[in-house]
């Protein structure tokens, strides 16, 4: 990517305030970004108060809320807009994290009007097809140019219109561009089908999202129809999810077999594959060149050395500059990071068959190595970082290296990023003699068994997981496709060139199958123990305690 002129500090501050006002960033993300851009605490509080304050009006049983508007609105939709718009039927209603409109709106815009992305062509080529009852499923995306504000049409709209007027509540994403893309796609689906969409961004932390779903299922609530499901949850939630085989089996077969097998429980397809993930290392290629570093690090020790060299050099001009940032908070993301540390250092995985491995000396050594990063080449506050904090640090020009998921690639290359054209991606480090690894992530879409609008919900999933939408998300948002025909698409490969170079990275999986419905408890044991170590605790003691608790959970599974 070529270097480009970056916006001034005042422009970035203005853009951030507009993003808060239009609902493009959450209040939590606004606070993080505002601090990075130099807002005072009183200014941050004032903007938050102006954009809805602490009080919000509940709109659904899932805790959705809509902040009050700061300008007249003539439309029924809560979709954010930064300018006048028309065509209210195209805009889905927005639950939690919906923010005030900054200008008169009739609710047409399902996406912020100021969000601009380059047009990319999604080239289809010869269409291999799979037959379904309502027609054909194209295995490859059509040859169409899409922009962020111009998502694919609903190819099955005619059949879906049988459910016009029904209202589907979708618990969507919150990390990175997830929420924006959900609104855009839901708006297009609503406009093409007449099915009313209520988009509610779910908790950013997977652990909190899991607990939300668990409460909903236990209460047999119909408040949620469609939900994002982490790759590790199908087995745990299978009893509460609708079998999608009858209507989506042919489209499902477009995905790689491994993920399809993961989402099939006792013969039932309980989650439709949507996009994949794995941990990767982002680095500032301009700073490697500046400090005469020939190549990105291959080992964790090299990462520590390179991060310190760059950090020491940059702190004269930027006292907040960090060598390496990652997800160190006590949540699911730390479980993913920890698995990478262990597996890449020869310590194996958390659970191997019926054996728990987390308390080995090799595991303790791996975690102690990263503990040594905290307060030296990583900020002390990294133990509170999740994905968004990691992203803001790196894209704000305040870190040399960052561990994150592929979604950050498009954000880091965007017009508001301070590192556009200055970064690249490689595999995470590994110990000498070990292969680089990345924890398998990714999300599926499922329909609650307690939903009152299951047919309409399935049509929404059909659209969201169609090759055209998967290709659109892959090119505009750098989401990793799970459909081979989309992965092979030239536009997707151009948007995610690093995928070819990371083909040999070993994908490691969390012990969701071994722990079954006890996985969430097991992961909590892991990330709480490791977070304690990163904050100064004794690794041997914390991991031995985790070992005992995991063994108990494994016997119950």
**Uncertain ranges:** 1-6, 52-89, 96-135
What is the arithmetic mean of pLDDT? 82
For the secondary structure, the number of strands is: 21
Please identify which CATH superfamily of the largest domain we are dealing with: Periplasmic binding protein-like II
Q: State the helical fraction.
A: 25-40%
Secondary structure category:
alpha/beta
The percentage of residues in β strands lies in: 15-25%
Per the principal axes of the C-alpha atoms, what is the gross shape? globular
Q: In this structure, how is the largest beta sheet organized?
A: 7 strands, mixed
What does this structure look like?
The chain has 557 residues and is of the alpha/beta class. The protein folds into 3 domains: 8-55, no CATH class; 146-270 and 442-496, D-Maltodextrin-Binding Protein, domain 2 (3-Layer(aba) Sandwich); 280-436 and 504-556, Periplasmic binding protein-like II (D-Maltodextrin-Binding Protein, domain 2, 3-Layer(aba) Sandwich). A hairpin with a 2-residue loop joins strand 16 and strand 17. Helix 1 runs antiparallel to helix 2, helix 2 packs parallel to helix 14 and helix 22 (519-534) runs antiparallel to helix 23 (539-556). The longest helix has 18 residues, at 539-556. The relative contact order is 0.13. Mean pLDDT is 82; it is low at 1-6, 52-89 and 96-135.
